[in-house]
Design brief:
It is a single chain. The protein is an alpha+beta fold and 145 residues long. The chain is built from four helices and seven strands, in the order βαβαβββββαα. It has helices spanning 15-31, 49-53, 126-130, 133-141, and strands at residues 3-8, 38-42, 57-62, 65-79, 85-91, 96-102, 109-113. Strands 1, 2, 3, 4, 5, 6 and 7 form a seven-stranded mixed beta sheet that branches. The longest helix has 17 residues, at 15-31. The radius of gyration is 16 Å and the shape is globular. 21% of the residues are buried.
């Protein structure tokens, strides 16, 4: 069974913000002649690499709720220019929306078992995503999701 990672999406107010940022970064890399791949850099290197890269995803917490995920395709440890060990979590650029799941703030990342991960949003919920983001957040805070 794949293992997932849970991470706060700092600086994003919505899934749409995340998607725009990913598109912007990929386009920057194309223009610079670099391989257009998307990754997230983190200081701590996961120990359970094989479990994660065998179908695991990075679940993003946005404004207090898990709202989406991206599949992790590779984990690349490296040492930065200051001699600090870090890693790139290489991600599929496609963002998959999930059912919202409340989460408190935390530092770093956490392992997330598949059995505890929110399910992918169903197509019949597309109307939900058409609502303004602030209205979706208020409805979630009221427990009306």
């Amino acid at each position: 069974m794949p293992l997932n990672i849970l991470k706060l999406c700092v600086g994003c107010d919505s899934v749409e913000d995340l998607e725009e940022w990913i598109g912007f970064r990929l386009e920057e890399k194309r223009r610079a002649g670099e391989k257009p791949e998307h990754f997230h850099t983190t200081r701590m290197v996961p120990k359970r690499v094989e479990e994660i890269t065998s179908g695991g995803s990075l679940y993003w917490v946005i404004k207090g709720n898990v709202q989406c995920r991206q599949r992790i395709t590779e984990i690349r440890p490296f040492t930065d220019k200051d001699g600090i060990g870090r890693c790139h979590l290489v991600l599929e650029p496609k963002v998959v929306r999930t059912e919202w799941q409340p989460r408190r703030a935390f530092q770093g990342w956490r392992y997330l078992k598949q059995s505890e991960a929110p399910v992918d949003a169903r197509e019949e919920r597309e109307g939900w995503f058409a609502l303004p983001q602030n209205l979706r957040r208020e409805l979630a805070e009221l427990g009306l999701l």
